Amino acid sequence: MSIRWPNKKVVGLTGNIATGKSTVMRLAAQQGALTLDADKVVHEIMADDPSMQAAIAVAFGPEVRRADGSIDRAALAAIVFGDPEALRDLENMMHPAVRQEIYRRVDASDAAIVFIEAIKLLEGELVTVCDQVWVTRCAPRRQIERLMVCRGMDDQTAAMRVNAQAPQAEKVARADVVIDTDGTMADSVLQFEAAWVGLLARPEPVTPAGGLPPVIDTPPVPEPPPAVPEVLVRRARPSDIPAILLLIHRATEGAVRLKRADMLMALSERSYLIGQVGTEISTVLGWNTDSTTSACIDQVFVHPLPAAALTLPAVLAEVERSASELICEVVMVFLPYEMPAEVRQVLGTAGYEPRDKESLRRAWQKGVEDMQPEGTYIMAKVLRDIRIA
Length: 389
Hints:
With 389 residues, the protein is of the alpha/beta class.
């Protein structure tokens, strides 16, 4: 049974293009399995999720968005498929959202068997929730024939699509079950049925010779307390830009719009720290020092807000540690007046207090004059009571 879903068995299905994955998914659905196609989930998110649509348009340009808000996948493909870095950025943006939607659908389903089809199953995190990995394969010539018949490609185009993918052997080497679709449909069905029986089979308990062992009453073992999620704090990298843009868009409900080039420039001008649990980024702080006296945080983005209590304190602590190493005396946070109460509460708990500019030391006031954005107020935490000469 799946670690994430103890009452379900989850199969991850992958394989190269035109190797028969759709056939396996159809057979699984006929047996009552919940079947989820990660590629279709991507298309649905691009068509129906305004937040993701806006983030993609910000990252890749308004020309990828239609008048109704949906993503023009052909226009987007023209940008990313010729640019490996742009494709990686898009995948970093989409994959967390796709995982969450797949998890939501599995959570909501009563099906005991789940099949998840994903072309990049083995490269991502979806494989970690699968009990078994099934891989379809066939001869390259069969792939080309299917692309010509089913998708109307000419021979040359079909061959290019087949040859552009990694060798099938790489996926086969990591498979628990391999279904060879080179033969007839009947052959494929027989292989599926055998694999299905193996999926349903449960190991029989072993009874030792001499009969059943005596029953020993043991006291119940108390359940351990739930593990505290581990927070990772690190410096932002250019590869984080898509995730940062999406978080900023969601945290500000679209009020702050940055393009990829803007964010890349910002990374060169100030330090950005990220707070995340697992692969999900929920806090981004942008900060800088005006001199050797003040560290100033002028960008605070948290989403979802409940994460403020978990990741924001850890990121603040890292800013304070770095500021202390730079011999700063104070950390000042410039907060928009509309900053949610959850963020203000975390700052207060961490020792930050609202301050007027006039109440600050003269040296600190210079940092306010140089770095405070319009429409913000100050919360400050003193790191050193005595000015260091």
